[in-house]
Amino acid sequence: MATKLKKQDNPKSEKLWAAAEKIIPGGTQTFSKGPQQYVKGVAPKYIQRGKGSHVWDADGHEFVDFVLGLGPVILGYAYPRVDEAIAKQLKDGIAFPLMHPLEVELSQKLVELIPSAEMVRFGKNGSDATAAAVRVSRAHTKRDKIACCGYHGWQDWFIGTTTRNLGVPDAVRKLTLPFKYNDIDSLKALFDQNPGQIAAVILEPTLFVAPKDDFLKKVKELAHKNGAVLIFDEVITGFRIALGGAQEYFGVTPDLSTFGKALGNGMPISAIVGKAEIMSKFNDVFFSFTAGGEALSLAASLATVAELQEKKALKHVWAMGDMLRDGYNAMAKDLKLEASTRMIGYGFWPEMEFNGKDGKHSFEIQTLVTQELIKRGVLTRAGMVLCYSHTPEDIRKTLAAQGEALEILRDALKAGDVASRLEGELIPPVIRAS
Fold first, then answer.
1. What is the CATH code for 95-293?
2. Is 151 assigned a catalytic role?
3. Which of 65, 241, 264, 284 makes the best surface tag, with the fewest CB within 10 Å?
């Protein structure tokens, strides 16, 4: 029988939030880190520190963390080799009036590891890289329209396709055309409707769902047949699904690729890599900013990549995720909850699915399960991010918490009172369905 726990008191978090709401629009720097995404009223709002796979909130409560800064932390918090590389570089400086040798060293490493990489440019976040990839593709093809699939950051060219499009001009919104994953006909229709106008096809090569029927290969063939550049957005999959990204894992090489998140184990760095023929356009295409060659992030990235290589860390990451996913699904089956919840996806980032009676995503069920996990010392969202510092004991503790949460869900579904068991606000989507 599931243990009934009281929600934790978070006076410091609440005091900080009260101050933040008055001076920070929205109260947060990142929508996905806002309290609405973690059962507002139950979850802590501020994290004070992290070590390995654990974090401590502003009130001192400890959690096994499966959010990991929204994905960048691939090795673990305060990871010694990375921190030592940062500290060593810090003694020599952070930003300089000319280029730093680490730019060359890291570029050479990425060219060595990533199949599509012949040349490299660096940014500070995924949106930098995807926006640069779109701009250089337009310059290369002398076309304006973009076909996209997945999430590609906050800048106008993409966010205009979502419900978060306030402030994006209509003229810009009309230039980006979404298509559906694993639906090659939806992409073909875009080319048929916009002959000779699409500069690039950009997509996340996978996330929680695997490509079917040679989907990625067919996308590449269709893009090239129509004279468009193929861009893989590997901001999430890069240095997680494989060192060379999803393109290495699936054996499909795009023209351009964007990387971020895990590239620096939490430090702000991203990269756009690709064919020299296209990348050389950056000699004229403007992609330049003060922090582009910031040395601490370059040092952190080199240390991160070296550790991933030498320790074969991704094998461990996948093993922990597989253990978590398989254990969760076994418990859901035993409790006869398969229709309401299951865990899908790859070991590096499996996702809990929550379905109502209509088969659609249930935010009530998601909120209840997440609420009970938080109360049991597990900080997570639906997608559970794994890192090298997660241990079998972390996974066992998490499965025990999930087991109790699922028992509570079973009882709530039988009683028909899921909503009344919520102790905080319902989790909403960051980007609402249109």
1. 3.40.640.10
2. yes
3. 284
